[in-house]
Amino acid sequence: MKRNTFFGFVTPSLIVMVGLMVLPLLASLVLGLHRITIRNLRAPAWIGLQNYEDVLSDPRFWDSLEFTLIFIAVTVPIRMLLGLAFALLLDQIVKWRGFFIAGSLMPFVLTPVVGTLIFRDLFDIGGPLSYVLNELFNFRMIWNTVNVRVLIIIHSLWVSTPFAMIVFFAGLQTLPKERLEAARVDGASWLKQLRHIAIPHLYSLFVFVALISTMDSYRVLDSVLVLTRQNPQIDARTVMYYSFLTAVEFRRWGKANAMSIITVVGIFIVLIPFLIMTYRDQLQED
Amino acid sequence: MEHTKSQTARIIIYIILALFMIYSIFPFGWTILNSIKLPKDATGSIPKIPGQFEATGQNYSSLWLNVSEADAAQVGFVLLILLVLLALLGLFAGRLPWPNSYTYTGIVLSVVGIVLVLPSMVDTAEFYDYLINSVIVTIGTLAVSLSIGALAGYGLARYRYLISVIILVLALAFRALPSISFVLPFFYLGQISGLYDTHILLIFCLVATNQPFTIWMLRSFFMEIPREIEEAAMMDGAGRLRAFLLVIVPIVWPGIITTGLFTLLLAYNDFLLARILMQTNWTLPVGIAQFTGGEDPGHVTLAAAASVSVTLPIICVIIFFQKYLIRGLASGAVKG
Predict the structure, then answer these.
(1) Which residues 156-215 in chain B show a CB within 8 A of chain A?
(2) Which range of residues forms the domain containing residue A178?
């Protein structure tokens, strides 16, 4: 393909991406240096790094960052372990595989706001789970910070375990047949096969799922909005949700932009090794 | 890997998987029950199972229509028959003398047609407007995103030089960023330019945030096609674009459907962008979020009816296109 033809094909997409992602990000950088309220929308006041100081000295920002990191640290490993466990179980059976996979996708395809609402009703008054918890464990579901945080975590696992399961299950189907056969002839147990053949083979998928699920955990917003009922008393804010609140509820657009730039820088720092890895992979493919 | 030979182990595996299934599906089943309860049956301290309450269609009719209950029942009945007919058509698509995809496209178009025509025949409620906005935004996003994404994905699959790699890696980096980083300036620019609260702004923002994923995924499908195929077409005198449209696109069509499914889910399910960029033209997820705050007991059953209504279209789409979705998830092409 000639260079000009290539640009012919790629340009529409590039225009959209540059125009609607790169430029907004640069705009965000500029807006973050201004004080913007609903009154001075057309003539924002330049205040330099004041917004960044505001963000970094805001205890609620640090609280939200702390919860976000706890959330990632808890959900990512559990999700991967559960996903792998269910993938291995699914790999053991033949009948009804399609049915199990299709059913497990239910929480994954639900609109996040809807899925969380559904999930919340189970624990609400009149919900079956709050009833069971009360009857069997004498535990009354109260919507306080700790309980809501736990619910946000459980909900996240409910939604995204199927994704990990399906990716790992697909990976298990590509294991080298000859090596498994050889191992079986040598009398290696199932556990040994798992440890010495399957897990090394799936390694790149583990990295892939860990990366995706870290990113997904980072951007969780809808479930926080629904499960906290937008109640300011419940401190289960993630960074995303706090940026959203700062912009939409408090209408501090300058500060929200500064927060978003800090987020972007943080994500890029984490991401750089993966980007370099991908870059090398792609160069080698040619 | 090797299957276990023990019968007991197999039974245990099936039981665990069945429990997993219940855990995945039960919450939605419960919501269906709630959606046909009266508020007083849904908010008592003891949950009521079928047989303990009287079923009602009141939540659905007050959610969707501004007409009397008897009229609403008639409208609902006619719609149900139409949808069942379309579903039957879909089930027997394989027996019809033309490709399945034509039938499916026809079904989708008829459903969209019904949705758009209905308000001119009966008095619909506000929630219906959210549905129309959702349909417009989802279809707009699908059309724009897939067409420019397919062009770019093909270009990136065929032109293998440094510039392609750089574009791909940068796209991946942007995929990792949360959409709130792009949408905040857009709220601002939208306000200034007057595009705020229009479908077009939301569609293009959704297209942009989806584009990195779309080009990665489509590129991987284009790379599976040997170059010889379009080279043969071009030898016959077709230009690159003609060869692409007439020869390559039909071959890669399943891949485009797979990518389209993910785009559809993302556009239809999006809450954040629509919430920030729309003032009055709400989409369904934003409309439903109004039931999320507060403690009004009437909201529980209404929210349940809304949840079921919003989810049914997705379930229909997934039932028809399930294998594409699973293939897409499994391909690992979901790089971000």
Answers:
(1) 156, 158-165, 167-169, 171-174, 176-189, 191-192, 204-205, 207-209, 211-212, 215
(2) 32-111+140-285
Domains of chain B by residue range: 69-123, 125-330
Residues 217-236 of chain A with CB under 8 A from chain B are: 218-219, 221-222, 225-226, 229-231
Q: Which of A4-18, A21-35, A108-122, B99-113 has the lowest mean pLDDT?
A: B99-113
CATH topology of domain B125-330: MetI-like fold (1.10.3720)
Tens-digit pLDDT profile for residues B64-110 = 888 777 788 888 888 889 988 988 888 888 788 888 778 888 888 88
Could you tell me if B234 lies within 8 Å of chain A, comparing CB atoms?
A: no
**Cβ separation B311–A111 shorter than 8 A:** yes
Residue B280 pLDDT > 80: yes
DSSP-based three-state secondary structure for B65 = strand
What was the pLDDT predicted at B150?
95
Residues A144 and A237 in one domain: yes
Nearest Cα of chain A lies from the Cα of B208 at a distance, in angstroms, of 5
Q: Flag if A109 and B165 touch (Cβ within 8 Å).
A: no
Which pLDDT score, from 0 to 100, does residue A286 have?
Answer: 56
**A128, part of any domain:** no
Across the interface, do B24 and A162 touch by the CB < 8 Å criterion? yes
Q: Label each residue of chain A as H, E or C.
A: CCHHHHHHHHHHHHHHHHHHHHHHHHHHHHHCCEECCCCCCCCCEECCCHHHHHHHCCHHHHHHHHHHHHHHHHHHHHHHHHHHHHHHHHHHCCCCHHHHHHHHCHHHHCCHHHHHHHHHHHHCCCCHHHHHHHHHHCCCCCCCHHHHHHHHHHHHHHHHHHHHHHHHHHHHCCCCHHHHHHHHHCCCCHHHHHHHHHHHHCHHHHHHHHHHHHHHHHCCCHHHHHHCCCCCCCCCCCHHHHHHHHHHCCCCHHHHHHHHHHHHHHHHHHHHHHHHHHHHHHHHHC
Tell me the pLDDT tens digit for each residue of B223-242: 888 888 888 888 777 788 88
Burial class (CB in 10 A: 0-12, 13-18, 19+), B167: buried
Q: Do B152 and A119 touch (CB under 8 A)?
A: no
